[in-house]
Write a structure and sequence with these properties.
The protein has 345 residues and is an all-alpha fold. It has one domain. The chain is 72% helix and 0% strand. The chain contains 15 helices and no strands.
């Protein structure tokens, strides 16, 4: 396997994943209100939410594409990558915590009446916002990249397929419906998100004939999205409670869906100059957008822009577009300030 040079399609996928994450969280209130809102409204939320489940896996795959193919000394790698991630992460964590204190003060709570330092440390330990789980997960993956990258750059295609085969099998066996087939063989280390790093690197370097690529892409997207959206609805209505098992990043249907999306956008050529400009902006500021967008979304919902303002079919994409626009503007503005680029993300 040979290292991959940065291509335009990487910007396409990064921008797509960024938009997907914002849309995913914009539809979150709707799907979580299962049984409390009309079934038709819930299905709309399920469609929007299920249609962008590729987002986080694509981000992980792009990390594999960009980092597994490069040779770093350990010192250089950790200095460059951890600084790139940790500085804006800590900055935005403190911003989220500050807004938490502001909300408590607005409610009349005495923010000096409890141990503020313990509160801050707890937030930093477990995440100042729920979506920061991705950053903690990413830091964990970074610890393995210097080792995994050396292997990926020197292994054969057959060896990489062997790795991916074990990963897929172990991931499937971790699913609830396959628990009866679970064996005592310890392959749990292969069942995590690390597999997406290798999968992204493999697909980026794999030469696939156009006809085969189209067939695989269409099959993976159709099967993956149908199972994700319809399957989630059928299980939830069958159990009379929301079940997000098929939404999970490591569910087989999401893996299929993600492979299809990755292959499709790897071959897609965008020529419209307006779309290219928007893509470049979103791709460039994607990390900062990811960090700040939940804070923006939180206050948009507070001013009554949520699922029952208008029909969810219109509200969810409008909310996502507004959140994406404001988040991009904030990150863009911070980047223009002195030293802002080190904190904005």
């Amino acid at each position: 396997m040979q290292p991959t040079k940065k291509q335009v399609w990487i910007d396409n996928l990064r921008a797509l994943a960024t938009i997907g994450v914002v849309l995913l969280h914009s539809s979150g209130d709707t799907v979580l209100l299962f049984g409390k809102i009309p079934a038709g409204d819930w299905w709309v939320g399920d469609i929007y939410s299920g249609a962008v489940r590729y987002s986080v896996p694509i981000f992980i795959m792009l990390t594999g594409v960009l980092l597994l193919g490069k040779e770093y000394s350990l010192g250089v790698f950790f200095r460059k990558r951890f600084t790139r991630v940790l500085t804006p992460f800590l900055f935005w964590s403190l911003i989220y915590i500050a807004f938490d204190f502001w909300d408590k003060a607005k409610k009349g709570e005495n923010i000096l009446s409890f141990d503020s330092l313990d509160y801050i440390l707890e937030k930093l330990q477990y995440g100042a916002s729920f979506h920061f789980w991705y950053i903690y997960m990413l830091i964990g993956l970074y610890l393995f990249i210097p080792i995994l990258g050396k292997w990926a750059r020197n292994c054969t295609e057959k060896e990489m397929l062997y790795f991916l085969g074990i990963w897929l099998c172990s991931t499937i066996l971790e699913q609830p419906y396959f628990s009866d087939f679970h064996m005592e063989i310890d392959i749990v280390s292969f069942s995590g998100r690390m597999g997406y790093l290798v999968l992204g690197y493999y697909l980026a370097n794999k030469s696939i004939k156009p006809k085969t690529n189209n067939i695989v892409t269409a099959t993976c997207i159709i099967i993956g999205i149908v199972i994700t959206i319809i399957g989630t609805g059928m299980i939830s209505f069958g159990e009379k409670s929301f079940d997000e098992m098929l939404y999970e990043n490591l569910s087989p249907n999401v893996i299929l869906f993600t492979i299809g999306v990755f292959l499709f956008f790897r071959k897609l050529e965008i020529t419209n100059p307006v779309i290219i400009r928007l893509r470049d902006i979103i791709s460039k500021y994607s990390f900062g957008i990811y960090l700040v967008h939940m804070l923006v979304l939180r206050y948009l919902v507070e001013i009554n822009i949520h699922w029952n303002t208008v029909h969810p079919g219109l509200l969810i994409p409008s909310l996502a577009l507004l959140c994406l626009t404001i988040s991009t503007a904030i990150v863009y503005g911070l980047n223009k300030l002195p030293y802002g680029k080190y904190f904005a993300g």
